[in-house]
Amino acid sequence: MPRIITLSVDRWAPTNCAPDVVECAAESLEQGNILFFPHLGFQLGAAEQAFLSPETAGKSKNVSWDGVAGRLRGSNVDPALQPLLQGMMQRFAAAGESLLRALFPAYPGALVTSRTSFRAVEVAGRSTSWRKDDTRLHVDSFPSTPVQGKRILRLFSNVNPNGQARSWRFGGSFEAVAERFLPTLTAPPRGSARLLQWCSVTRGYRTAYDHYMLQLHDRMKADGAYQSSPDVTGYDFPPQSTWLVFTDQVPHAVVRGQYLLEQTFYVPVDAMRDPERAPLRTLERLLARPLT
Ligand code: SIN
Ligand code: FE
Does the model's pTM come out above 0.85? Predict the structure, then answer.
């Protein structure tokens, strides 16, 4: 079962992380634990507080900022306020980058900063399809953005102003989940990956790894017995706290909460302290074949 590893870091650009903290952080994370920063909150500016409303995202679930393309999506705010919203998300992305640079001196050359999201809608009671329902335990996998084996590392910060925690559940180890569901997964049909790419369903080539991870994500969410299995634990992340997880590895779900900032990073398998712990390597071992 994933463990919550608490770190006392209290600023986004910590200057002198002791070597043992750095070593413990990367090691714990790669083992499939959650790094929890109870004293690290993300402060919103006075004008930014206005974004703490479900209206910020309107009909979409989240607002997302793509720093590479320079594109803000899902925003429902007045066009005059968009630069302020964009600025808030950029500031969170930069804060996340500086935290990761300090904590993981071994990753940065390889670390890729991807999307930033702002989740403004209360999770409990939100209506959505089962596949998109993150109140069900799952590992992350992106249907239209193949990762081709790279790790999905996500940083979360609860910015709720009303004292409300973000409640998560955890469901066992990646190995246990992979062993449980692998017999129900099917190989990608020949030629399907090229077709998906030609038809622009995917940005980039959907490798066999991406194919299996998507199926795993779906099978986990669809399986009622697994969702209510006895080895599920939970954790409430309080407002003004931050946590970091390899969400492609740690089975997780969010039960309730509102107002969260999230930053996605990609880490190449070879940049890990121990690449054998990557879901890619675990699936390759279990299936006895290369998947990228
Ligand atoms: C998820 O990544 O599945 C949801 C996390 C959250 O919104 O708290
Ligand atoms: Fe998720």
Answer: yes
